[in-house]
Design a protein that fits this description.
mainly beta; 22-stranded antiparallel barrel; five-stranded mixed beta sheet; 46 strands; about 5% helix
Length: about 750
């Protein structure tokens, strides 16, 4: 299969379904309010059963649905913190009034990551963490990194001169798959290509998900779901300012023009450089003595980036939706001229198209094509040996294309089958590493059955077959079982996963700038494989929830660097001091326990938090002459304990809504394999507040708060071999302003 054939096949499917005739239509409008107070509820999601039509309520709780087929229509109303309610209509109506009762948000929340289809989180056989739009608004986060670190205990971040490294449950970002509305994202800075003002929720799957998503989902999946508002017109602008020249400016425009909707967003972000200490530890190579000297090395490097995103949706029929989208991203670092001679420029553009078609109440078809193109380059602002100021040298270029076709078949009232095929095409080139374009492809087929064995007992089992041009065939089975007894839920899951060797691992030849070390690629690499077991116990009450998840993940054939023997390295030793090659030499296991709880106390108060305990080790450390039988060592960037907690309060007085919160987060020591060093533990406390004023279609929200209230900083002298625990600059006041018109 080639890319032109993929394009033609997708276009043919779109044209075929677009030719279906029009139907007679009805419209339904009304208002949604709180059952207890009678106050209107904004942001309620309305979905039409057996249809792709939907809407959300505006600031006055109003909704409007049109172009629905004649006949019985069942609408589902859902909102965070409220019980889901259904209402059925047989003709057009303009005065529908829906009253929702309060409920634990964990019961009503809808997720798609676990099984690939929409379902309530409480009914998902695989535990999924969800960060809601309400959580994001109270925390007033500016970036995805802030959201994941402040609102969960599963993630840790390590920042150095080359960027930020994410870790999920002890495994680095190479093993975590990031999705934007279900589409795979690539590049080293994928998490920066998210406009948080567009995000409706974030779904986090803390185990292998290769069955549904293929390679790279060994450690987990993060699916960012953006807003799909479908009410007339919405215009919004958000500005957030804090110290160290940090500015976030977002603008969005959402339009519904008959059967066509348009979602446009623009995001600008910037930050300045900052130091945590003006001193650096310098070790004399001869005397081995370490002294402190003034330095211009920065703990965090400044940057400026632009992100533009556009999405179109066309719904010619209530059971057929066509989508097209694209985005452009540019990020330029802003290093100080003293101590640096180049900036790094990252650019990416992505585009895609999709089709969703409800063939019948029992058959749903989903087809998608997406492309993601990423490049990274050095931009020199000083002369450097043979390179002149103003020149741009490309580091690497990555291209990714994906086409998939999925069907969901309701075989009976208690059995649902999902099956599909997928084709991936990867390409990589690098000027600095002196190799031309390299390519590979992966073709896959998968099937997953969701079977309700008995009331309160559900089984999900599936199998994925993949064929890759480099590593050939691979099978990934998965099975999960869930039992429900009133508010108590028990889940047990066994999943397998794989991570295909990247083109860079296979082909790249690199030379260390500071140590004259040569790194070779390896054409014989095998895929890394995982076996993951998790046991979850969850109790859900209308005002209280508690969850405990124990998990075990074993990964074999992990790719690491193997130092070549003098005989193997002989052809290179005249030019280089040391030679190493990427090889499948490691095995790792991760043991963990995640505890999470939240409570709704009434009177506007709610509190909660989570705690993650981890023990991740490489059980095949490299033997040396001095230590021929080494003990297992901790995984790189791993942290043994992470936690977060929050206390929120909110109240509404007519047009004025006030929300206040206190959030705390912390982590234990973080281990670095590269330097055999533990970065210190820390904890941070934030205060947040938002003041929202609504008058008709207009809303003004003022945000203010203090991050890192206790002014903690890792103020040790800069040292390249002793990584900072965090580059947090200390106490940080911030203000934000959101202006919104919604009609």
């Amino acid at each position: 299969m080639n890319l032109s054939l993929l394009h033609r096949g997708f276009l043919s499917l779109v044209l075929l379904l677009s030719a279906i005739g029009l139907q007679a239509q009805i419209s339904i409008s009304g208002v949604v309010s709180d059952q207890a107070s009678g106050e209107p509820i904004p942001g309620v999601t309305i979905r039409v059963d057996h249809s792709l039509k939907g809407a959300t309520t505006n600031a006055r709780g109003e909704f409007y649905l049109k172009d629905l087929p004649q006949g019985k229509q069942t609408l589902r109303f859902s909102a965070i913190g409220y019980q889901t309610q259904h209402a059925t209509y047989t003709s057009s109506t303009t005065n529908a009034h829906i009253r929702l009762a309060e409920e634990n948000k964990q019961l009503a929340q809808v997720v798609v990551t676990a099984t690939g289809t929409h379902r309530r989180m409480a009914e998902s056989p695989i535990p999924v963490q969800v960060i809601t739009a309400k959580d994001l608004a109270i925390a007033n986060v500016a970036t995805l990194e802030e959201a994941l670190s402040k609102l969960t205990s599963s993630f840790s971040f390590a920042t150095n001169a080359m960027g930020t490294e994410l870790s999920l449950n002890g495994l680095k970002s190479d093993y975590v798959l990031f999705l934007l509305n279900g589409n795979r994202m690539i590049s080293d800075d994928a998490i920066q290509r998210i406009n948080m003002n567009n995000v409706k929720r974030i779904e986090i799957l803390n185990s292998s998900a290769s069955l549904l998503y293929g390679s790279d989902a060994v450690g987990g999946v993060v699916n960012i779901i953006t807003d799909d508002d479908k009410n007339g017109i919405e215009v919004a602008s958000t500005t957030r300012v804090s110290n160290h020249q940090r500015i976030n400016q977002s603008a969005t425009l959402d339009l519904l023009l008959g059967k066509v909707s348009s979602n446009t967003s623009y995001l600008y972000q910037q930050a300045g450089n900052w130091q945590l200490s003006p001193m650096a530890e310098v070790t004399n190579k001869k005397t081995k003595k370490t002294t402190e000297e003034p330095t211009n090395k920065q703990a965090s490097l400044g940057f400026g980036n632009h992100l533009i995103q556009q999405r179109f949706s066309y719904t010619p029929l209530s059971n057929l939706t066509l989508t097209a989208e694209g985005s452009f991203y540019d990020n330029m670092s802003r290093r100080p001229s003293e101590g640096y001679d180049y900036n790094i420029d990252h650019r990416a553009y992505a585009y895609g198209a999709g089709l969703q078609y409800i063939v019948s109440p029992r058959v749903f078809v989903d087809a998608n094509f997406s492309a993601d193109n990423y490049s990274s380059a050095y931009y020199y602002f000083k002369d450097n040996k043979a390179i002149k100021a103003g020149e741009r040298t490309e580091r690497k270029r990555v291209q990714f294309y994906k086409g998939d076709l999925r069907g969901v078949f309701k075989l009976s009232s208690n059995n649902k089958l999902s099956a599909g095929v997928e084709y991936l095409h990867d390409a990589l080139s690098s000027t600095t590493d002196s190799y031309g374009q390299k390519k590979t492809y992966t073709a896959s087929a998968f099937a997953q059955d969701e079977w309700t064995i008995a009331p309160g007992l559900e089984l999900v089992a599936g199998l994925r077959y993949s064929f890759n041009e480099t590593f050939h065939s691979h099978l990934s089975p998965s099975i999960s079982l869930m039992g429900i007894s009133r508010g108590l839920r028990g889940r047990i899951s066994y999943t397998t996963g794989f991570k295909a060797p990247s083109l860079q691992q296979i082909y790249a030849t690199e030379v260390g700038k500071s140590n004259n070390k040569l790194t070779l690629g390896n054409l014989n690499l095998k895929p890394e494989e995982s076996h993951s077991l998790s046991v979850n116990l969850e109790y859900l009450h209308r005002r209280f929830s508690f969850s405990a998840t124990a998990f075990f993940n074993y990964i074999s054939n992990m790719i690491n660097y193997r130092v070549l023997s003098p005989e193997e390295a002989a052809p290179y030793l005249k030019e280089y001091d040391e030679v190493q090659m990427r090889d499948n030499i490691d095995k790792a296991r991760v043991l963990g326990l995640n505890l999470a709880s939240n409570a709704y106390l009434g009177a506007g108060f709610d509190f909660g938090g989570s705690l993650t305990l981890l023990n991740g080790k490489n059980i095949t450390p490299i033997a040396t002459k001095k230590n021929p039988h080494p003990s297992p060592i901790l995984l790189d960037k791993s942290v043994g304990i992470l936690g977060n907690a929050y206390l929120n309060w909110g109240h509404t007085w007519g047009m004025y809504d006030l929300k206040m919160g206190v959030m705390a987060r912390g982590q234990g020591e973080r281990y670095s394999v590269t330097y055999d060093y533990y970065s210190p533990s820390f904890y941070l406390i934030d205060l947040t507040s938002s003041h929202s004023f609504t008058l008709g279609d207009y809303n003004v929200s003022l945000g203010a708060g203090i991050e890192n209230l206790l002014n903690w900083r890792d103020a040790r002298p800069w040292n390249s071999s002793k990584p900072y625990a965090s580059v947090n600059p200390g106490r940080t006041p911030y203000v934000s302003l959101t202006l919104r018109y919604r009609h």
